[in-house]
Structures
1.
Amino acid sequence: MAAISDKPAGRSGSLLVVQRAAGAFETFVKISADGSVTAYNGHVDLGTGIRTALGQIVAEELDVSFARVVVVLGDTAVVPNQGATIASETIQVSAVPLRQASAQARQFLIARAAERLELKIADLSIEDGLVRGKDNRSVSYGELIGDETVLLELAEVPVKAASTYSIVGQSVPRL
């Protein structure tokens, strides 16, 4: 089970999925080379549990554990401008680009892993940010990012079918 890495320890790169807005970039998801995941949402948690729900959505789409996801809410210096927090709009509306960004990051990383491992995407699986080939070689998201800063502009990509969920819909203590 040897991991493939041509990057030195202490990597400092990151993968960000962003959207252009008013001449700047708004970040939805950041995956750091150390394996940490940060999700950004413009709404605030008014007791409805959105920090927990958004963390589950990001973890689900990225194939990482829920515990690895930090959700930043409402900090106007760093989150996307998504307007006022109103009723249940966060999950119905503003979670959509966050889910897309997470799926887009996963798609990018698995394609990069396929190239690195010289395998077809269909021959790869992901568990908690570790991409493993049918031949048992593996590479982590962090190793795939290394020291590089990858900036992906938010695009519509396929997201997971609800029937495949293992994190979303599970009862967990609220963050």
Note: Residues 126 and 155 are 22 Å apart (CA to CA).
2.
Amino acid sequence: MNAADVLSRLSRRGLFRIKPELDRMQAIMRALNDPQEGYPSVHIAGTNGKGSVAAGLEAVLRAAGKKTGLYISPHLVDLRERIQISAHPIGQNAFETAAETVYQAEKITGLSLTYFEFLTAMAFVAFRNAHVDIAIVEVGLGGLWDATNVLSHPLLSIITSIGTDHHQWLGPTRTAIALQKAGIIKPDGTVISGVRGAPGRSIAAVAKRQNASLRQLDRDFKVQPGSSFWLENRQSGLYKNKDGDSLEFIFGLIGNHQMDNASLVIEAVQQLRLKGWDITEGQLLNGLREIHWPGRFFLRRQTGQAPILFDGAHNSEAMRAFLGTLRYSPWHHIPKTLIFSSYRDKDYRTMALLLKRIPQKIILCRLPGSRGLDTRELSKAFRTLKALVEIVESPQAALRRALASTPQNHLIMVTGSLALVGMLLPFVSPLAGEADPQRRVRGPLTPTLSHKGRGSNLERKSEYAHV
């Protein structure tokens, strides 16, 4: 089975076909001799932030010399990005081998997996074949019935946030959705939660029923935001926990919501240390600083053209976080052109209302496939805005139009869908010295800001300069 065959077979399964049960996955895993149990794992759920936490934890573990497996969704450009070995998308041969292995398990069992289930099984097989030291596995949808929940003994379960995305499958309220996410909590396990309010209390109740140890953001640990370094896409912060530990750090993602994600990564490392994992403070700091997660408040500049700000905000909570970060950025008062699109099952109307008074010009386009929202429907959501609205036939045409019509001292924003970001990011070449979106960031930053923590093996004196 070559790569073209794999993609063809996957496409026939239906990209968004969902069957909420684990029986098929469990049977296939048994036929494969349970590859997911052959290495330690960390399981991460949440409406928003789970990808950032997964990428941050992977960066730290890799900095600590571990061979990592990372399973994420969706991908930006290439499907193989979903299955990574030590921060590299799975190679074509390994991709084909994993697919053939899972396909043979289907033939043996007589079962047919969904698109996401098949990719999940491929990831577990690929990680076993690569002999990874640890796998970081991101939930696709919900938690309880997600295909990844065949992980029976993860080292940690992490739940980042609760929003109303996918309510048609997960439930009408945040509390109902929280219970679905809490389905990844295992008996006698360890769970780290960044969920606040009533949904957070629901997660705590599940942890108690499962006799799981709970570490709760704002109760057991917290983070204090520091300075933002916008052009380098980094910010400083101070982590503290109730045990008296503290750590000043640099995180390679911008926005106050990313400070919550950074604190979850640091707390996860603390818990891994308690379980015997050897991760030094220097390795932790290096991993946090060198996280690479493009498409999240990601600025790309081109000579002679307006800079382009990419953010894959695809629901109302993510859009609020994006606009909140934008409000405190150097580009807040700069005139803006917006490129926007959305899938039909997303809350695009609320996102449109949140964007009011932000752009001077809006360019709408349709995402490919049956799930793409018709631009006529999309334009109705923006009709009450005072900005000029233009409709074009494709994301690429929208980018060409924006670049041609936006002065270079203005800003182009691409948001509304991570798929839209993934389609357009490859068409924008980095300036000389800028990091390519498919490569790990290595920024020119030198320590120069001093801070001394108190009473902890995590304490350090550090300095940081904006270069």
Note: The first helix runs from residue 3 to 12.
3.
Amino acid sequence: MAAGPVGILGGTFDPVHNAHLRIGQLALDVLDLAQLLWIPTGAPGYRNAPVALAADRVAMLELALRGEPRYVIDRRELAPGASGYTVDTLRALRAERGPDVALVLLMGGDQFDKLETWHHWRDLFALARIAVFARPGWSPEVSDAVRAAGPVERIDMPPLDISATAIRGRIARGKDVSLLVPREVLDYISSHHLYT
């Protein structure tokens, strides 16, 4: 088990792209993480299902994360019957890691803005520290309820105008995405004819 804080970064990673990797690197550096768990989501009923199959999304993550021993892919949310709710994943991690390991839930400012719509969102604060990766100039309207739930650590990062949705759209139109995803991921997308 990791001796220092363990970061948790969830997402569809459909595909994993350079903004995801920037968040990962910043998290390692700024939060001094011993380990960062990348948790690809399954297809729960409360959000749109990913476009690529789970096996393809995991394969792309494996390619993108090579060379950084602190990165670990955690497949629990891809298991049949997994709830996909962050709170359930954090409860399971807390039970596995014990009370002494600091868990840090990483999220973008766009997700933090929707926090009060998350399933049992208040419980997240009891299970993990929350670190929000925000674009410069982002100033959330933090409600009294969120303020009362617990502290949030803000980590500023330069704006990277990259989204998986836009990448999939560009690929479907035959446009270049070589500056948006790692080379190995682009090769995988091409060889497996994803998003066309």
Note: The chain is about 35% helix and 15% strand.
